[in-house]
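As agreed, record passed on underneath.
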Amino acid sequence: MKNLLGSLILVFLLAFQSMGQKFLEPADSLNKKRLIAVSITGGLAWAGSISALHFVWYKDFEKSKFHTFDDSREWNQMDKLGHMYTSWQFGRSVGDLFEWSGLDHKKSAIIGAAYSFGYMTTFELLDATNVKWGFSWSDVAFNTIGAGTYFAQEYLWDKQYAHFKFSFHDSKLTQYRPEVLGSDFTSRLLKDYNGQTYWMSFNPIYWFKKESKVPEWINLSLGYSTNNQLIGDGGTFVYTDGMNSTSFTPYRQYFLSLDINFEAIPTKSRLLKLVFRGLNFIKIPFPALELSQGKLGFRPFYF
């Protein structure tokens, strides 16, 4: 639910920029009208989304006093990478909007990172007063990594050399616990960690040789996922169907693949740049090497 809400706001923030080629051009100097519009929109999006989530989701659960909850070892840390990915994307989107308004690049990066960290922490404050969950310091840590990675790259180099991306496929495991892993595509996309993969894409050659014959938009990508994970604590889950039983023991998966950095493809069109930015949210399907359970395998087509 939280990741879905985050995705919707990201779409909204990006759509805010898509009203014409001239309108998409960043201001040469501070444009107060744009700055005010971005600031008010960001504040309303924050307050409105949190309020909506409270009434749609949190109010149905039993309340408690503020408390913490250690979920750092659950789901093979897949949910933590989700926090890192989301906070990095939030930081970028907000920072770009403030830079679009004409604000200084480094100041925009500071605001983007701060907004991302603050917004994601709000969810922890909501969790902290629910009996079922609690304030998770590990969530905060990965929120910090995501926002911090965006900020460090933007502040130091004015560019994101490493991009976090996401991919998803049908794991075929939701049939065993649809109430936990999801019963339709949308819920599976959010809940089935077995089908999710988080990636870090980069071009190591371009880091050291700007004039390389290898285009900047061709990237290597490191991926991480989990499989056979039907319960959060990582234990073996036994599914019984009549006289037959099937055991599922979770294990980690590490991937090495190619990817495309669409934002590095040269174009003068602001609209096309916006489209490329949207495409960069996900990892493009490519062949991949997989290391799992002590064995190295090859996936001819992995998403």
